[in-house]
Amino acid sequence: MATESKYTTQSYNLSKLILCLLTLAALAVIINTSPSLSRYLFGLPVVLSGLLGIVGTIILYKGRNEPVDEKKVIAFIINFAMVLLIIAIFISNTLY
Fold first, then answer.
1. Rounded distance between C-alpha atoms, residue 47 and residue 89, angstroms
2. Percent of the chain's residues with pLDDT above 90
3. Cα(14)–Cα(28) distance, rounded to whole angstroms?
4. Closest alpha carbon to 20 in 57, 45, 50
5. What whole-number distance in Å separates Cα of residue 5 and Cα of residue 68?
6. Which of residues 13 and 33 earns the better pLDDT score?
7. What is the DSSP letter of 13?
């Protein structure tokens, strides 16, 4: 019996977007033509993916009553990792 898991699908799609943004950030580091341009090409996708991770976690929380499947597990891991990363970035920037 298949049920509609709207929140899980939304969060999973955000997780795919996060992975694409992190790939773009890695490519910016690999290319590294000019340091000032690479700083923005690396920082913007990382911060944006952190914010999307927060949004994805909120969406997953709304869908907490949906059945657990592989999409939900993947979305939880990616979103929670990005929330931890953005918290670590904010803490490291305020301490130093």
1. 9
2. 60
3. 21
4. 45
5. 10
6. 13
7. H
What are the C-alpha distances in Å from 11 to residues 3, 24, 25, 49, 96? Answer: 16, 20, 21, 13, 33
Write down how long the chain is.
96
**Tokens 């990382």 -> residue:** 46
Write the DSSP string, 38-96: HHHHHHHHHHHHHHHHHHHHHHHHHTTTSPP-HHHHHHHHHHHHHHHHHHHHHHHHHH-
In terms of phi and psi (left: phi > 0; alpha: psi -120 to 50; beta: otherwise), the region of 32 is left
CA 74 to chain CA mean position, Å: 11
Give the pLDDT of residue 42: 87
